């Protein structure tokens, strides 16, 4: 499975309470109210654990965590 699919599944299950709603890869998750600051922290922990990378504090930015695409791009750049 690629990072995008894994991230979508996690967001649906853990942050959208199992919703089957469509999740567009480029959708701004913050603006849509799908994630908040606590959600970002949960995503960072998940990314570190699932993909075996360390996300330094300076990389926890809106640019890296605002959409599924930006997160999967970030994961790919760290692998």
Can you describe this structure?
With 79 residues, the protein is mostly helical. It has 4 helices and no strands. The relative contact order is 0.21. The mean pLDDT is 93.
- Unreliable spans are none
Distance between the termini: 15 Å
CATH architecture level-2 label: Orthogonal Bundle
Compute the number of helices: 4
Number of domains: 1
Shape annotation: globular
Biggest beta-sheet profile: none
Q: Give the radius of gyration.
A: 11 Å
Classify the fold: give the CATH topology. Non-ribosomal Peptide Synthetase Peptidyl Carrier Protein, Chain A
User: What's the CATH class label?
Assistant: Mainly Alpha
Multimeric organization: single chain
Structural class: mainly alpha
Order of helices and strands, N to C? HHHH
- Name the beta content range: under 5%
Which percent range fits the helix content?
Answer: 40-55%
CATH superfamily: ACP-like
Chain-averaged pLDDT: 93
Query: How many runs of DSSP E, i.e. beta strands?
Result: 0
What key phrases describe this protein's structure?
4 helices, 0% strand, Non-ribosomal Peptide Synthetase Peptidyl Carrier Protein, Chain A, mainly alpha, 79 residues, 54% helix
Quick description:
Helices cover 54% and strands 0% of the residues.
List strands and helices in order, with pairings.
Blueprint: H1 3-15, H2 37-51, H3 62-65, H4 68-78
